[in-house]
Amino acid sequence: MMKALFRLLFLFSPFLTFAQGDSLSSPQLYSRRGVPILPETGEYGLSLNAQPLFNYAGNFFNNTADNELEIGYAYQYMFVGKHFITPQIANRLKLGFSTQYDRLVIPYLGNPDETHREIGKGTDFLIGVGQERRRGRGRVQGLFGGEAYLRFVYVSTNYKYDRDLNDSDPVATPEEQMGPSGGRAIRAINVTLDPAGNATAIQGTGLSLGLRIFVGVEYFFAPKISIGTELGLSAFFTFSGHGQVREEFFTGGETRESVTKKPADKNVALGVGADNNGLPSGFTDINSLPSSLAGTSDGMIFLHFYF
After folding, report:
1. What's the number of domains the chain is made of?
2. Rounded CA separation 238/153 (Å)
């Protein structure tokens, strides 16, 4: 594994080193009032997901509330901070975060005052550090670079019941969620359960380490403000642990709990995939999971501010 990682570092190293000389230099542009338009040495940058602005514009002009710029999957919240060590080279820090809370209430047959509740929670967090270089002699600036990143994905479902297990009803009813060992499910981590209690691992959950190269473009429509996007190629290791299901059983006049690990095997995988703004294709799109994180779209359009 370490040999493979060193090979990846060697492959990506040209994109992570400093540029030599000023071959990528371009003259500064000025507005009519003499204000510099492009970023300068020592300045900082902040990039934000511009999709909500496009969604708002679509809703405003169409007088509806469900217009959305959909290009795939990305984080609910994505921020990229930059520090320019030259006008053409910037070190960058990327943070991506998605979270979701879903609650499903199911009444019992014949007794609607009692319910069974499924509460889904999820977290998807990414942090990356890297460097970008840029070139261009006008308001349109091309950029390229590389970064290393760490990603963590965790999905769970909690099951709450108004009914207690007892001597008369010691097992799960049809409204309740059965576990893989025949008990009543209480909590499922990184797995999904069907009505019969069969557990299926959620692929892509766990910890991922990767390297990414990217290219992109920005257009400066005002001094120190631009809009742009980027595409990338990533190589990554994904470490997936056991999924777990906690169940409860009623035996001997009392309720006891046990934990079942599903699937039996852990997984370590190496992958390479194209991405849009940080999500390699080898990762699971957690938008598609039953207890999922409500990410918005991939290929985000960024709004950049420099100061």
Report:
1. 1
2. 11
CB 111 within 8 A of CB 307: no
Cis? peptide before 263, omega within 30° of 0: yes
3 φ, ψ (degrees, to nearest 5): -60, -45
159-203 tens-digit pLDDT: 999 999 998 889 998 889 999 999 999 999 888 888 888 888 776
Identify the sign of the CA torsion 201, 204, 207, 208.
positive
Distant-in-sequence, close-in-space partners of 8: CB < 8 Å, separation ≥ 6: 211, 235
Structure token digits, residue 188:
């499922």
Residue 91: Cβ-neighbour burial (10 angstroms; 0-12, 13-18, 19+): middle
Q: Enter the tokens of residue 291.
A: 């207890």
Angle (CA) 76 77 82, round 5°: 145
Q: What is the pTM of this model?
A: 0.75
Read off the DSSP letter of residue 277.
Answer: T
User: How does the average pLDDT of the chain come out, rounded?
Assistant: 79
Sequence-distant (6+) residues with CB within 8 A of 202 are 155, 190, 191, 192, 243, 284, 289
Task: Please tell me the distance from the alpha carbon of residue 36 to that of residue 283, in angstroms, as a whole number.
Answer: 41
Produce one character per residue of 215-235: b if its CB has 16 or more CB atoms within 10 Å, e if not: ebbbebeebbebbbebebbbb
% pLDDT > 90, the chain: 39
Q: How far apart are the first and last CA of the chain?
A: 42
Give the domain range for residue 175. 2-306
The answer to whether the beta carbons of residues 268 and 238 sit under 8 Å apart is yes
* Beta pairing partners, 118: 104, 159
